[in-house]
Amino acid sequence: MSILTVPEAERLDHDAATLPVAEIAAYLQRSLGQQMAAFLAGLSDVKQIGRYAREDGPEPRAAVACRLRHGYKIVRMIGDAYDAETAKAWLVGTNTRLDDQAPIELLRAAKSPEEFTAVVRAARQLASFQT
Questions:
Q1: Is the Cβ–Cβ distance between 17 and 4 less than 8 Å?
Q2: What gap in Å lies between CA 109 and CA 107, rounded to an integer?
Q3: 88-117: pLDDT as tens digits
Q4: Is the pTM value of this prediction over 0.90?
Q5: Residues 10-18: contacts with CB within 8 Å, 24+ apart?
Q6: Of 6, 53, 74, 93, which sits with the fewest C-beta atoms within 10 Å of its C-beta?
Q7: Beta bridge mates, 95
Q8: DSSP state of 102
Q9: Where are the domains of the chain?
C-alpha cells in the first residue's frame, strides 16, 4: 500500500490523458469487470467495453472516452494506494464527500468538468489518507 504523492498524482493525470483509450478500457475491464466498467462509462451494451479494449477496436464517443479516462485515474489512484477490491467497493459505496451518492453513479452521469472533478477529488483524498 502506498500513499498518493504529488508526483504520482501528476503521472496518473498524464497517463489518463495520453494513454490510448483501448489501454484504458482494458485496464478498467480487468480491474472492475466488464459489467462494472461498462456501467461507469455509461454504456448500455456491456460487451462494448471489450470492443473498446481491443487495439483495433472502435473509438468511443467523446463523453464515453472522458468517463473512461476519469474512471481510469480514480481506479488507479485507489488501486495503487490500496487494491482493486477497495477501488471497486469505493466506487459503489455512498460517499459523504459526494452528498451520499455512489461515485460510480456520478461518473456515469457526469457531463461537466466540475462533476468529474468532485469525484476525482474525493478519490484523491482517500488515496492520500495517512494513518
A1: no
A2: 5
A3: 999 999 999 999 999 999 999 999 999 999
A4: yes
A5: 12/73, 12/76, 12/77, 13/73, 15/72, 15/73, 15/76, 16/69, 16/70, 16/72, 16/73, 16/76, 17/69
A6: 6
A7: 101
A8: -
A9: 6-127
